[in-house]
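BUG-386 | component: ligand-complex export | severity: low

The export step for nicotinamide-adenine-dinucleotide jobs runs without errors, but we want the raw record kept on the ticket for reference. Input record follows.
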Amino acid sequence: MRSYKLGPQKIVSGEDAIQALAELPAERKRAYIVMSGTIQEELGQLKMVTDVLEGAGFTWKAYTDVEPEPSWKTVLRGAEDMKEFEPDWVIGFGGGSAMDAAKAMWVFYENPDYTCLADVMPPNEIKTLKERARVCCIPTSAGTGSEATRAALVKDTDEHKKYSIRCMRNRMVPDVAILDPVFSTTMPPSLTAGSGMDALTHAIETYVATNANPLSDAMAIGGFITGFNNLATCYDEPENLEARAAMLEASCMAGIAFSNAALGIVHSIAHTFGAIYGVPHGMANAIVLPYGLAFNAEHSERAAKRYAQLASMVGVEDLTQAIIDLRAHMNVPSCMKEVVTDEAEVMANIDRLVAQAQADVCTPCTPHRPTDEEMRELILKVYNGR
Ligand SMILES: NC(=O)c1ccc[n+]([C@@H]2O[C@H](COP(=O)([O-])OP(=O)(O)OC[C@H]3O[C@@H](n4cnc5c(N)ncnc54)[C@H](O)[C@@H]3O)[C@@H](O)[C@H]2O)c1
Ligand SMILES: [Fe+2]
């Protein structure tokens, strides 16, 4: 028996989708907007959001104090502020960091007796959700798919580990996702590349996960084809609203895909370099992806066959080579050494990198579960570029 997770109850996509904010059903009409820094405000994008909210009679407050790849301490601080404001809608407005912070803060807002990360980690099930507020996400990157997933990733800056807060009963999926391409036109090129490769990685890893299923396959294929066919255009023509809208839809589909199956070792290694060396999530995945594809194709016939299917769907001969070419087109570094330059430090830390990647939440459903020795070799290839 399978219980599918269908994503947000409402997804509104395309130019002017932001107008859908006016239709959020609310009694108290208090919206708490979570953003990662003040960039959206400086770009005039926050005003586009608040104009619609005010027009619909909402009172709002914006919380901008979320750093990229949010920490657990940030989440707790924001949750305290949220408790004072008492919203009935929480709005995550930004990239994956803002949306994840919004979702994680909301978990603590709904459960005021929670005080630490362990309260929300398995085997504990999150007690209360959707009683005090509902959640709407407006992604400005494309993307993490966080607007459609049941997870929020937070970093423990003391332990240098990344944790996934999630509700196995699917209640952490936002109620509403608004995919308005106007917001993603302002991404810096490296974020267009990194977050776009993150979306492709979600689709590709899900398609070969050992627990892939008909629904995750459909969403992974849809996300992959749409993403692969539009990412380079987004990079080359940042203002191209059609390509930006397609990329947001690709990212959302890929998010629904992995919520219904699992990711794999590309994410395990990317999480590890992100947590220990601060490599941004999308960029880390973009660097690791071709190495992960080659490793899986070598060790799993099923994965190799499925990669060949994906390649034929977008008219390329070899998926790994196509990803390498796309990556080069977008000036993504070809190995981790280009971004984490202290080689001696990394080599001294290699056992920890291996152990952390092996213990990552994404490792269990990867096509071929690496031995420690295989994981070490793979990480060294990712690092050295061989
Ligand atoms: N919940 C999930 O299912 C899920 C899935 C994948 C990744 N993630 C998480 O998402 C985070 C990464 O998100 P991301 O790649 O979207 O980057 P991000 O949200 O960290 O954004 C990076 C920077 O770019 C800025 N930015 C975002 N959109 C912009 C725009 N349109 N114009 C100008 N600046 C903009 C942000 O303010 C931030 O400073 C990581 O913490 C990762 O772990 C979560
Ligand atoms: Fe990701």
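Assignee comment: Attached the raw record above. The mean pLDDT is 96.
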